[in-house]
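Structure in, sequence out. Go:
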């Protein structure tokens, strides 16, 4: 009997469903054995593979989340040096811009270029993210 190559169906399993089948310390051979054991179970649930469109949407959401985090970090940075910032995107950007350009002694000179760069990044990203 000649064995030919058969196309394999790719299926993705959630990690939490495979973990119970890992017997001892983690290494590649034991991981493979656990996956092999888990895939044979009739009750194993598989995760549908994402389409390119779904992956793109996830990446857009990730980029937006990173932008929000940058703005939040900027407000925290200003607060550490006594610059009070009201809520809102425009307030954070305006306060950061004022603090970076004013030499009132509250913000160390070393941080001014970084703050200017962050402000510019937020402004550019904000323009790109606005719907046309």
């Amino acid at each position: 009997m000649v064995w030919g190559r058969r196309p394999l169906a790719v299926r993705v399993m959630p990690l939490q469903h495979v973990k119970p089948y890992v017997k001892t310390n983690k290494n590649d051979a034991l991981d493979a054995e656990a996956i092999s054991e888990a895939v044979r179970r009739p009750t194993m649930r598989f995760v549908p593979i994402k389409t390119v469109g779904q992956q793109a949407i996830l990446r857009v959401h990730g980029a937006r989340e990173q932008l929000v985090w940058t703005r939040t970090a900027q407000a925290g940075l200003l607060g550490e040096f006594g610059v009070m910032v009201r809520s809102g995107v425009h307030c954070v950007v305006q306060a950061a811009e004022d603090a970076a350009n004013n030499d009132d002694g509250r913000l160390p000179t070393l941080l001014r270029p970084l703050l200017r760069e962050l402000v510019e990044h937020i402004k550019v990203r904000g323009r790109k993210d606005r719907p046309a």
